[in-house]
Design brief:
The complex is a heterodimer. Chain A is an all-alpha fold. Chain A has 22 helices and no strands. The chains are: A mainly alpha, B mainly alpha. At the A-B interface, helix 3, helix 10 and helix 15 of A face helix 1 of B.
Chain lengths: 494, 42
Amino acid sequence: MGHFSWIDGGIVGLYIVATMAAGLAVRKYVGKVEHFLLAGREMNLYLGIASLAATEFGVVTCMYTAQSGFLNGFAGATPGVLAALAMFFVGLTGFCVKPLRDAGVMTIPELFELRLGARVRWLSGVVIVLGGLLNMGVFLRTGGDFLVAVCGFDARYLEITMTALLVFVAIYTVLGGMLSVLVTDFLQFIVLSVGLLAVTVLILVNVGWGRLTETVQTHYGPGGFNPFIHPKMGWEYVVANGMLSLAMVLTWQTTIQRLLAAKDTQTGRRVYTRTSFFFLCRWLIPAVWGIAALAVLTPEQIGDNTLLAMPKLLSQIVPVGLMGILVAAMLAADMSTDSSYMLTWSSVIYNDILAPFRKGAWSERRGLLVSRTIVALIGVFLLLYGLWYPLRGSLWDYLTVTANIYLSSMSVLLVACCYWKRANSWGAAGAIIAGAVVPIAFLVMEQLPATRHFAKDIIGPHRSNIATYLCAAAAMVAGSLLKPRRPAPKGAES
Amino acid sequence: MSEHWFWWTLTAACVGWYSTVTVYVAIRGATDIRRMLRRLSG
């Protein structure tokens, strides 16, 4: 086992051809910028579920969730439980997402301009794109590492393989925009789901549930099942991940893009509630794979990099035929995530960062040309950064740090923008600054010898994350109350 | 021991729910795509 045969190659080739054909077939329906960025707001419920699930499950997701299961046992899937609860709560109540979708905006920063002014819109766009691009920067390398570990591909061909894959994705995303993304997401969701479920059943049959729980009990004791008594977790971990989950559901632009592309607010909210359980699946299923790697592999086989433990297990137990389905599933996961992320960050650049430079209305033709150019440039960035940046330490830590660059401040801004009449541009600026300063200060303290012990052992990353959200909220309140109130002329900045 | 059952139940629910949703979304999602493209071309 562990060999990538011609049968597997045939399955993967068939998947890539079908995806490219579907992605290119819908490009003729793109006539306006709104078609390109939001599929003309014609996305219905089940297509929305498939697209949201495919977008938010990439190879990178599978890798960090499996690593979390490997390092923490079942308690490592706690963020998945919290994300599912947050998603269900927001969809059910319409908290923030109802006023956001009702406003008819294309992006979150566009909503901010209505209440907080044009400068806040531009600054929010910059913060969102910065966090988003750094976050997706490691996707390509991680996907390549997975393929090398699972299939035994020659690492020398990694760059050329991943470049070809990215070019395929860029072609249909540049030409078809959100329409191509939705149609290919649908295909990719099916391929991805078949692969995930087949491998999960294989692991449960081969390794057995009893051996999985026994392994967690042996390595991590009761803490491997309960995050509150896990030595590296505790209540701070649960609270910090709860805040992160709620902020992600409310403001992670790739998730919000599905809400904004939905045909109406009710459909968008139903996409959230119906997809909420998937956010548990995307953590727990790979975590079980990671625990299986801990149960089956020896320390010598695992080596230093725990991120590659799960792929090494799969290379040993997945038979020919199923290997092709698994690789196609993981390519589907990677391609659906890459295409959505490229389109999403380009929509913020086009709609918000370039807004001050779009004096006078651009024609649809010019708008489409600029949007497509931005998607292509993001593809180039992804290629250069992804193959250049050497990831050290926990992948989940890297992703949470880069995401927190904007999640804390943007979630505070969104809640205040929707529900607090006194919110204004001073408060928004304070929240953005506080949301960036606190995590950066923590990272600096971790590096300085004089403060390293205090930062790592006394504060810790979870308390730092909680403090980031609390400081951003406090800065929003203080800044808004400090700004002198005066009757503003209609349509002016608040 | 109750925590073992908690995670066993969640894992079984994930596999069962995910299998069902995949089949259902595959059928209904195809209809959604046809409807979306028809409306965009009109």
